[in-house]
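Subject: mismatched residue count in predicted assembly?

I count 1048 residues in my input, but I want to confirm that the predicted structure covers every chain. Input:
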Amino acid sequence: MSATITKVSGESREYVTVKIAGQLFGLAIDRIHDVFAPVNMTPVPLAQREIAGVLNLRGRIVTAIDMRRRLGLPDRDDAGTSMAVGIDANGESFGLIVDNVGEVMRLALAELESAPANLDKTWSGLAAGIYRLEGQLLVILDVDRVLRLGGEASAAA
Amino acid sequence: MDDLLSEFLTETAESLDVVDLELVKFEQDPNNAQILDNIFRLVHTIKGTCGFLGLPRLEALAHAAETLMGKFRDGQPVTGEAVSVILVSIDRIKEILAVLGDTGSEPEGADEDLVEQLDAMAGIGIAATEAAEEPEEVSEETAEQPFVFQVLERALKPGEVSLDDLERAFRDAPGPEDIAPPKPEKPAALPKKTPPPAPKEAKESTSKGDAPAKTQSIRVNVDTLEHLITMVSELVLTRNQLLDIARRNEDSEFKVPLQRLSNVTAELQEGVMQTRMQPIGNAWQKLPRIVRDLAQELSKDIELEMHGEDTELDRQVLELIKDPLTHMVRNSADHGLESTDERIAAGKPAKGVIRLRAYHEGGHIIIEVADDGKGLNVARISEKILDRGLVTEDELAKMTESQIHRFIFNAGFSTAAQVTSVSGRGVGMDVVRTNIELIGGSIDLKSVQGEGTTFTIKIPLTLAIVSALIVETGGQRFAIPQLSVVELVRAHANSGHRIETINGAAVLRLRNKLLPLVKMRDLLRMPADEEAVESDFIVVMRVGSQTFGIVVDSVFHTEEIVVKPMSSKLRDITMFSGNTILGDGSVIMIVDPNGIAQDVRTGEGGELDADDEDEAMKARAGDKTALLIVRAGSDAPKAIPLSLVTRLEDIPVERIEAVNGRHLVQYRGTLMPLIYLNDDVVRHQEGAQPLLVFSDAGRSVGLAIDAVVDIVDAELDIEVGSATPGILGSAVIRDQATEIIDVAHYLPMGFEDWFEKREMDQMALTRRILFVDDSAFFRNMLTPVFKAAGYEVVVCDGARAALGALSGDTRFDAIVTDIEMPEMNGFEFCEAVGASDQFGHIPVIALSSHTSTAAIERGRQAGFHDFVAKFDRPGLIASLKEIGQDMGVAA
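Triage response: the counts match. Full output below for your records.
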């Protein structure tokens, strides 16, 4: 992923922005399948904490990942509706559960900065870089790294 | 790749598999002209097709092989060497085909080495004559068959045949050629992945000489088939949804048509599933060749028997078991079967047999891989178990042989003394087990030392759609595959089925048996429900030989579910095998019975395996034992065979002294160590402490309990094993779940050297005895008794095993044997021992619950030295001592 980002300057990419616990994140639009409201989700006992559950999206079984937990953030205390960003990886469907989905932004690759050294380990492990937008920072998430959950990494090792 | 080439590849691959198989048969039966003709024809076809397509390497090889086979046909003797060269050539052809499949053209390289060998065997020089003048004819032919034109742009190479020759060969070869033209004559048209029916048909047509029947099948692309199956699965789902709606609207007018739709769907599903079914023979096809090569490599004489090749199972399942099966057969050939010399020395036929058997049983297919080799080496496995610290020595001593055998399924557990090129590389039976469990199957084994090993694999027929029971726990629904569900029981505090607990472990009395129970909620670590549910549904499940109950909140209906694979993120959860979408659209998890069984085993230690069950059955056949019922630590009763207890005492507490954290009591003028049965036994401050005293050779140990409850004569029928130290297991005694105390666990706590010391003392008298009993319980209970009396014990779980042990080692001073045993009973065993010149002199003591005069008389006739009641410990020891003295006098 990171290899594609450090391409020739002048190129730009489109990102879908999402809000998680007040922070703005960006996800590369070419990886996003669809955006949907997660309903009728079945929790999976014994699963890793980050797995919010599984749900049926038009006949496909989607594994939902709770992005707050993935980022080490506290669970949501308000009863607001969440949204899910659908991603396909290795022939499987995943849904990233976020607080809400914002707009699509086109940003120049040249402006992408690497994550600051003092960024939380979990976050810096997932961030592909940071954009300084007006008034706020946009953390670009590396989708593949987001999908690499803790248990799996250790299992592979 | 053009269609012609890809078709050629598929057909040739199939033909080659058949050739492999037939060649091995042929080697064993070189006079069978029919087999030879069949091989000849197949190789010839391959060669001919290569000519069409312009594949010189393949063609030259096939030609040379064909020439050699032609010589066989003309009467040249068939040698193993020659067959080997042909097989190697076939392998080379396969290699070339593989590259051809990848790249669309033959790889660079030369095969002169093989061609020369083949030609040398055929007794001719390199033939480079016949083809030179033939290209003309070829082009004439090609004019009629345009598709050949583009590939045949060159003159034929040495060894190649013209189309004319090919036609002529087909006319000459016996077979259906007069009806079918050469092209469709090639292996019958069937779906790509179904080779065996094709060769079978080909064979049939050869023998009968009529061909048209085979046009009844067509080739269908596997993808098309898979797509069809997916669509049917979706249809099943939709049907389920409709049924769900209909269930909610009782008097719907849709009911009748819906029923019709449901039936049609079911039939359609069955029909489509049928297209996935293939004979297991497909997975076995390569085995004769493998076994043959192994036999040569290992210099063993091996016969491979195959029964039930036609048994059908799902293509997907078939693919998945191919490798495990191959591995197991290799294992049997390499480790299972002894070398020819060893076999002859052991009095077995020089030729070892590996037997494959497949048959249907319920919704499962059972595959057995058996060998008549040396059996598993329990000693070596035990050593390895201890080595790796998998269990303690105590635990190991309590295990039955079959329990020990099963350790070979543990990871990295190769008992091969040396790693050979064939097996023993660490990827062993654990991989086999994992693969089989992945597809919802199970594997078990039975092994008798000296007689062989049989592996039994049980796998579901199909994976895609299963019938499942939908249950609810903690507000969530789960699907339990119906195949492992035995029955449903509703437990209620006031009903006949009440859930009881032993030391926190829940059990259910079900038709005089104790069923270990686990709560689904606990298994899945779901939060406990505040409102205690009064009634509980119990799903009784059987996995392999293990039976247990799962407690759920409620049970819905049975539904055909389409198994969808688990997300890769959830695959490590062993409790679930997949998930599915229910009629109402929600996703639920499919419970994996194997995963649960594993958890029940490790969590509760309550394994109720087939052996225990058998023993329970036998024990029930009238074995009454005097049992002392006591209370210690909890209200649940505990029992101990009365014969093991020397005395019951009430010791005034002031006589108990604590020294260095150990409790001692002055007893009959000496200090006796005192052990509390468990930490919960009440330490009385005044009055008396009830004790069970165990004495032997002047030493005593006291076991402190809360109270002696009763002495009963009861059938000792241990139904549930125990992982708790000091407890052998549980049994139903007087309608109450009772724990059986393991005395052997406590004695060494008093005198650490309880067993060793005695052996030292009695060195002069130390005797080796062979103890034969099919019941694990008696083996576990009496072995310590013998040891305590200073005997070295070799334990066998049956008469045959005992005779095996005796034939290898006759240094026994006495044999103690049970009477009622399967296969060979004690009387027969005793007679067999008496008849031997090797070990006929060893006295045999019978151990039986039947001490009737008739039985004793029968025993005398059989040649028993003595007849002792099963729980008469002093009588047994006395009898053994008597023998010891006799021996001493004699020596």
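The first strand of chain B starts at residue 277 and ends at 279. Marking this ticket as 'not a bug'.
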